Amino acid sequence: MTYPMIELTDVSRTYPGGVAALASVSLRIGHGELVAIVGPSGSGKSTMLNVAGTLDRPSSGTVRIDGYDVSELDDDQLSALRATAIGFVFQSFHLAARVTALDNVAEGLIYTGLGRAERRERAAQALERVGLGHRLGHEPHELSGGERQRVAIARAVSGGPPLLLADEPTGALDSVAGAGVMDLLHELNASGTTIVIITHDREIAAGLPRQIAMRDGTIVSDSAAEPELGAEPAPAAGGHGEWSGVR
């Protein structure tokens, strides 16, 4: 059976004080899609990303990742899901200062249970993949903004997650560096990674195959009202039932 990579059903998220960040949102994103979620500040797009990435729980509704209802997973299973199935990229990079690019990426693999040598080997491979094989020993302050974002992307994909969630990944970059990061995300998607990009930049969104627009916590338009689901991924890519700790 083929499942959507992300499936939200009537998901709402209300914060203390009655602030409704999401209001009965339903959404399906298939394996292998490249999707932009666009909207102004306060539209609910980042909240939706956090809910889809299991960083935040909905107030109501159902969130499924590759068929798993995340409300049925315990804390260890959720940690396993995030560590092996979901990569996160944020605008502010979140790189440790005075730590090399290699070790910034390797530290992102600590919760996979791999030994230090294997973590560093995988980190080096991920940095090669994003074009930074020559910068392994450089610290964040020695890298350009575009290079720092590439390190952050390498960290996100080093464990081979089938899903990558990116929140304003070009927001802190100039146009040239931003274009380079978007090219990289297209390349990762072409290799099979499902990618969801949160952006306020409609030009970036227009360059992606699917655009979802949000306002006031709801989806107001979707260029693919009924997305075609891709083939079920191979187990090595994080297929249903193969995540460590999730059964």
From TrEMBL:
One of its GO terms (molecular function) is transmembrane transporter activity. InterPro entries: AAA+_ATPase (IPR003593), ABC_transporter-like_ATP-bd (IPR003439), ABC_transporter-like_CS (IPR017871), ABC_transpr_LolD-like (IPR015854), MacB-like_ATP-bd (IPR017911), P-loop_NTPase (IPR027417). SMART domains: AAA (SM00382). Residues 6-241 form the ABC transporter domain. Residues 225-237 have a biased composition (Low complexity). Residues 238-247 have a biased composition (Gly residues). Keywords: ATP-binding, Nucleotide-binding, Transport. GO terms for cellular component: membrane protein complex; plasma membrane. Gene3D superfamilies: P-loop containing nucleotide triphosphate hydrolases (3.40.50.300). Residues 225-247 are annotated as: Disordered. CDD domains: ABC_MJ0796_LolCDE_FtsE (cd03255). This is Putative ABC transport system ATP-binding protein.
